[in-house]
Each structure stands twice: as C-alpha cells, then as structure tokens.
Amino acid sequence: xxxxxxxxxxxxxxxxxxxxxxxxxxxxxxxxxxxxxxxxxxxxxxxxxxxxxxxxxxxxxxxxxxxxxxxxxxxxxxxxxxxxxxxxxxxxxxxxxxxxxxxxxxxxxxxxxxxxxxxxxxxxxxxxxxxxxxxxxxxxxxxxxxxxxxxxxxxxxxxxxxxxxxxxxxxxxxxxxxxxxxxxxxxxxxxxxxxxxxxxxxxxxxxxxxxxxxxxxxxxxxxxxxxxxxxxxxxxxxxxxxxxxxxxxxxxxxxxxxxxxxxxxxxxxxxxxxxxxxxxxxxxxxxxxxxxxxxxxxxxxxxxxxxxxxxxxxxxxxxxxxxxxxxxxxxxxxxxxxxxxxxxxxxxxxxxxxxxxxxxxxxxxxxxxxxxxxxxxxxxxxxxxxxxxxxxxxxxxxxxxxxxxxxxxxxxxxxxxxxxxxxxxxxxxxxxxxxxxxxxxxxxxxxxxxxxxxxxxxxxxxxxxx
Length: 466
Prior knowledge:
Layout: H1 2-32, H2 34-81, H3 85-103, H4 113-120, H5 134-148, H6 157-171, H7 183-199, H8 202-213, H9 223-240, H10 259-285, H11 290-297, H12 299-317, H13 326-333, H14 343-356, H15 364-382, H16 388-404, H17 407-418, H18 424-438, H19 445-456
Helix pairs in contact: 2-5, 2-6, 2-7, 2-9, 3-5, 3-12, 4-7, 4-19, 5-6, 6-7, 7-8, 7-9, 8-9, 8-17, 10-14, 10-15, 10-16, 10-18, 10-19, 11-12, 12-14, 13-15, 14-15, 15-16, 16-17, 16-18, 17-18
C-alpha cells in the first residue's frame, strides 16, 4: 500500500512539473511574440465584428420583409372594407412621409442602390451629406414600410441594399486597421448582404456585389466579405424558411426548344424595361414641363397628387397595383389565378408614379411583377411554344435585366427565387438579350442616377430642403 501511495505521489509530481514547464514555455512564447499575438487578436476581433454585422444585416432584412408584408396586407384589407380609404390615406400619408424623409431622414429617398454607388465614389476631400448612416437605415425601413402600407408601389430589396451598406459602414468604426478592409469594400459587402437576405438568395448577393456595386473597386472580393454575405443569407433562411422567394415553381421545357419564346420575351421586355428605366432617369435628371415645375415648387402637393393617382389605379384594378406585387406574382407562378391583361401595364404606371414621389422604395419586386404581367399577356401568343410558367419566368428575368441593365444578377436572382436551374441557359440568354435591347432606349439606371447624385451633392453644413 505504501508503495502504491508513493508511486501515485511520484506521478502527481511529474504531472505538476510537466504542466509547470509547459506553462513557463507558453509564458516565454507570449512574451517573445506579444506584438504579433495582439495583432492577430485584433484581426480576429475585427473579423468577428464584420461577420456579426452580416448577421445583423440579415436580421434587418427579415424585419423589413415582415413589416412590409404586414403593412401591405393591412392596407389591402382596409381598402376592401372601406373602398374610399385609399383616396384619403395615400395622398395624406405620401405628403407626410415625404416631409419626414426630407427633414428627419435626408438621404433616404429613392431606391437605395444609386445612393450606395454614389457613396462609394464620393471624393475624399469633399464635405457632403452622407448617403449611408444608421439614421438613414432606420428611416429607410420605417418610411419604406409606411409607404408600402399606404398604397405605394414599392419593393424592399433595393432599400435593403442601402440599409446593409449603412450598417456595415457603421461597423467599420470598430474594425482594426490591420484588417485592411477599405470603406468601399464595407459598402459592397453590406449592400450585397442586403440583396442576399432580401431575396433569400446568397449567390445573387455575391454576383450583385461584383456586377453592380464593385465596378469602382476590385472585383475580386475577399473571403471575409463573402462570408458576411453568406451569413446574412443564412439568417434570412433561418427566419423565413428554406423555400425560395416565390416558392418552388415547376418550369418545363428545354432551353434549346425555346428559341422563339426566348427571343420574343427578351425583345418585348427589353423594350418595356428600357422605357421604364428611361422614365425613371428622366424624372430624376432632366424632367421638364408643368408637372416637373409643380414637383420642384410644391413637392408635397405633387406627392399628394401621386397618391390620388395611385389610389385611383388601385381602385380600378381591384387593388392589384398596391404594394410590391409579390402576392400577384406568386399567384401567377403557381397557377392559382389568372390576372387581368392590364396588370402588367398598370403596375408599370403605378411604379413610375411611386418613384416620382421621391419616397424611399425600390423597384426590384415591382419589376418582377411587371415582367410576370407581361409574360401572362404573351401566353396566348406563345402558348404553343412553351408552358405558361416558362413564359412568365422568362419575362420576369427579361424585364428585371432590362430595367437594371445587370443581366447576370437578374438571371441569378430569378433562377434562385423560382428554383429554375433547368432553364438556366434560357434565363441567361433572355437576360442578356433584354439588357442589350434596353441599352437602345436608356442608359444604365443605377449608374446614371448615382452620377446625378454626385453632381447634386451639397455641403454637409447646408440646410436640408423643405
């Protein structure tokens, strides 16, 4: 027994000596490499902040989506009960929201994507009002939700880009310089994370970052940036489910057998999308005439008039033009109902009118709805060539590509949203052709609007417009 106790004590002493030796060696290593280890710690803390912000962007996109959907449904339900209500709420809410936007959240107007592009190109020495900030992010969500809940034809995807960029830019203050992430990269990552989370399509977010946002910075994004985008998409999937944006849509037909359908859809949507983009550009850059003078001299009267027009369009169409158009587009894709032939044209007009108001709101979801409506109108013409769902999906990608002139992003977004991998060649061809046709009628929408914002920027100490 005494021998066993002695052996146990000996083993304990050896273990203690071993641990003390290892601890001493660790102390020596830390002392000798203190600066290196501190630098590595700061780098990893910066990465955690970066990735954590990607998660926050995803949560913000989820919040934006849920609030927007509830607001749109609430407005539609009230309008069904009280048909006169939109003629009161939409004009008055439009004027009030424009005042709030201009005086409380300046910089939150419009889509959000041109603002991020302009912010990335801002001169280093010029003082101007910021186009990305936490205040703007809050205003974009609050006013954007209220606008959709008042009958305006807006989407939330473009605004989510500005929200994501604002959040990521704010997080940049807490990142160490050793991480070497430039502010432009933060804006790209935040904006792309916003697209990924808004559409529940992470791959589309990465492509959007490369094709649309990173034209003025390196196209090759680092793994850290891509991780932030993916995290935002994962968060969106956790809360919104793993289904695609428009659910699982069955698309029939092989791309090689759809040549006539692809060409027809691409040309029609290319012309329509080009005219749509041209109208938006002209309204922001070179619009002249009595209506333009009314908007400049009396913006609140003008937005109230826009509200009356939107209320009238909604009343005539049975509420089809209010909101983002998500519900109507999904109904077409899954074959629940056939919408009237005028849904696409009416949504086109409603979205242009809503954009003219100057309120925060995007055009991605309305563009998809317009494309779906145009596709439904082409079904009787092309019914012998392809299934109705195929025609609708091709027109969706064609109009989105023509309106934004970002064909790769458009076909990736639609492919992920409808699980249309079997039609990938057709989607890509339609997007490329429609984008090329659109260039005959209009310049690049977001780039042109961003350049106009750069020209119109005012010093940071100037009072906001009343």
